[in-house]
Amino acid sequence: MLSRGSLYTILNGIAQLVKAVSSLIINKITVVFLGPSALLLVGNLKSVYVILQQMSGAGIYEGAVKYISGEYKNRISFILQACMSLMLIGLTTSLLIYILFSAQIFDLLQLDDSDHLTRLWLTGGVIVGLLCFMLYTLFQSFFHGQKEYKTVVLNSFIASLLSLGVSIPLIYFHGILGLIISVFVPSITLFISYMLFVPNAKRFVATLFVKPVRFFVFRPLLSYALMSAIAAIVFPSVLIVIRVVLVQTAGVELASFWEGYSKFSMFISSLAISSISLYYLPKLVEAKTGKELRQVVLWGAKFLVAFALPALLLVYALGDKVIPLLYTTSFLEAFYLLKWELFGTFLKLLSFTMSFIMIAKRLTRLFIVSELVSGLVYLTFSLLFVNIYGTVGASIAFAATYLLYLIWATFYFSERFKFFEKG
């Protein structure tokens, strides 16, 4: 019989699967109607948007869950208002960064002066998308922290279907402009679904505004904001550099193929991590001793081996049928990328079971150093291996980076568990 944690993880996994499938369908529509090169454009735009999201305070979400589910569970309004204050600061910072670097962003997306209307829509999408992102993050942290997993799962499911229903017509009827707008649709639909379709939304609003709204800085949350900001800069920036290098060395077509396989890998890892983290993070937060922490980590690792590993092996076995279904048959020319991307994905998932301890236990300095070092290692390996092996070098670098990360995290946290036991 499934435990409560496993049951909620599987239910959330189903909701995340719907979300992932929706994204894959959108990618399929993009490739068919706009060509493989459109994946590079949307890939760079999503990297920029992720940076802006993280700067807006995505990491505060984990902090909110930690305190709402733990020591501040009787002061939820205080935590929510503190989160909103920091996220408003982050939102303002993100928009200023976008304005300051708008010329470089337009160049990255190859939008020249003749694309004036597209630039306006892009700017509007960034503003509305980030605002909705901030609001739905507050919603979700509230329900996640109170362990109302059914509400989180329901919202994710509804928002995924809404995003799919809106994005396909946008891309089909409006081409590149529709593709650009579609990047911001998930943030908007997540907020709308909470407001319109979640019965408990009014309780969140009542909790947030139970007292007069105050804008203040709650220092313990600053560490999560800082971790979020570092995460924002490192890996999305590395991915942008890798795309540019691949275009220059291998050409647009092969770079587009790599982007497709890389996106597929990211979908799988996001699906697994989103599924397990719903239950995993609160349990890590609650763990007080080394033994308890070890039990949670082992549960996460066993769950991934039991469900993720067979799924990855099945994907590889059926890869020659899956890839044309996801994109087009032309992507089979780069089929050799799949095994490295799947191998790297599994290593990434195993690393996650360890690395999430840094968020749960607010190990800010360690998180920042590990992000910077792993990002630098990924970039260095990519530049080295692409030069030696060509396009597949970027996928080998991905796997090699997470192999090293997993080895480090296993040894480090095995020792750190003893520290937790003493605490």
Structural classification: mainly alpha
Mean pLDDT over all positions: 85
Report the end-to-end length measured between terminal Cα atoms.
34 Å
Shape: globular
| Count of discrete alpha- or pi-helical segments spanning 4 or more residues | 16
Gyration radius, rounded: 21 Å
Low-confidence parts: none
Our estimate of the beta-strand percent is under 5%
Please provide the count of β strands: 0
Query: What is the succession of H and E elements?
Result: HHHHHHHHHHHHHHHH
Helix proportion of residues, in percent? over 70%
Tell me about the largest β-sheet: none
Protein model, in words:
Helices cover 85% and strands 0% of the residues. It is an all-alpha fold and 423 residues long. α10 runs antiparallel to α11. The chain is globular. The protein starts with a helix and ends with a helix.
SSE diagram, text form:
Blueprint: H1 4-34, H2 37-55, H3 60-69, H4 76-100, H5 102-108, H6 116-145, H7 149-182, H8 185-197, H9 201-208, H10 219-250, H11 252-286, H12 290-317, H13 319-326, H14 337-360, H15 364-389, H16 392-422
Helix pairs in contact: 1-7, 1-11, 2-4, 2-10, 2-11, 3-4, 3-6, 3-10, 3-11, 4-6, 6-7, 6-8, 7-8, 10-11, 10-15, 11-12, 11-14, 12-14, 12-16, 14-16, 15-16
Provide a quick synopsis of the model.
The protein is mostly helical and 423 residues long. It has helices spanning 4-34, 37-55, 60-69, 76-100, 102-108, 116-145, 149-182, 185-197, 201-208, 219-250, 252-286, 290-317, 319-326, 337-360, 364-389, 392-422.
